[in-house]
Structure formats: C-alpha cells, structure tokens
Design a protein that fits this description.
It contains three helices and six strands, in the order αβαβαββββ. It is of the alpha+beta class and 159 residues long. The chain has one domain: Roll (Nuclear Transport Factor 2, Chain: A), CATH 3.10.450.50. A six-stranded mixed sheet has the order 2-1-6-5-4-3. A hairpin with a 3-residue loop joins strand 3 and strand 4. The model has no long low-confidence stretch (mean pLDDT 93).
C-alpha cells in the first residue's frame, strides 16, 4: 500500500490554488493548473449517476478552458458576481508515486456585486486526477458533480 501522506500537502494546495484563483477573480490562472491535455467538466450528479453525457461545462484541454475564460471576459453579458469556495474532505483515494485520484466536497456561495445578494450557488463533490510534474502538481482531470439537477442561472464563471 502506498503512503500518500508525503504528497497530501501538494495535492491539497493545488485544489486550494484553483479555488483561490476563482474567488480572487484571477480565473485565467486556473488554465495554468490544468495539463495541456487535461479535462475540466461540470455536470449534475443526476446525469453522472445515470451515465448521461450532458455537462454544463466540458473543456477537453487547457486551451479550450482558456477560450471559455476569454469569452467570459470579452463576450458574455452577465451581472457582475463573484464566488467564494468552501472546500472540505480532501481525500487521496488511490494512485501511484506521481498520479493521484482525489475527491473533495465543495460549497460555492455566489455574491451579486451590485445588490450584495448572496446565495448558495453549488454544492457537490469534485473528482480529480492529479499528476506530479517537474513544474509541480497539475490537474489531468477535474470533474465537478453538483448536487442539484439544475443550475439556477447561467454558469459563466467556472466552479
């Protein structure tokens, strides 16, 4: 059995770096945390549990994620808002010396900048495949499974 403890802090810090980048409106940074051929997917637990393919977001490379973020900044029209991530239960489920399957829970509060209204926007579990590279830990896969069957409004900002 592999002892994951020596790698736990690097894995945890990568997960936190993603959340901080979004919370601090440095969304462009998350593409740097994904391998070039990495995949970022957001879908409902309902669809996932039934093997249904529909995802709210499915970027199949870091370049696709960068394009989505550029569109968010330049083309999409939406009310100014920001997220605050609460993460818990980071667990390395399996892996080898360089690759780890990781799960953690998330709760995201959305604050509307103009009105100040706050609401729980998404809760669920994230399933990550994390690879240790010479440049540091990177995501090979990120699968956010949100608990609700629907998204209240447009999910323009990545989770």
């Amino acid at each position: 059995m592999i002892d994951f403890e020596p790698h736990y802090r690097r894995v945890e810090q990568l997960i936190y770096a993603w959340a901080r980048a979004i919370d601090e409106d440095r969304v462009e940074h998350i593409a740097e945390l994904l391998l070039d051929d990495g995949r970022y997917t957001v879908k409902s637990r309902f669809n996932h549990d039934r093997g249904l393919p529909l995802a709210v977001i499915d970027a199949q490379s870091a370049a696709q994620l960068r394009d989505r973020i550029l569109s968010m900044r330049k083309a999409n029209v939406y009310q100014p808002q920001h997220y605050r991530h609460m993460l818990s239960g980071v667990h390395i489920a399996s892996g080898d010396d360089n690759t780890f399957e990781v799960t953690h829970n998330f709760l995201i509060v959305r604050t509307m900048d103009l009105s100040g209204d706050m609401k729980i926007f998404a809760t669920g579990q994230c399933h990550d495949l994390i690879v240790l590279t010479p440049e540091g830990a990177k995501f090979k896969e990120r699968l956010f499974l949100f608990d609700s069957r629907v998204v209240e409004t447009l999910m323009v900002i990545p989770l």
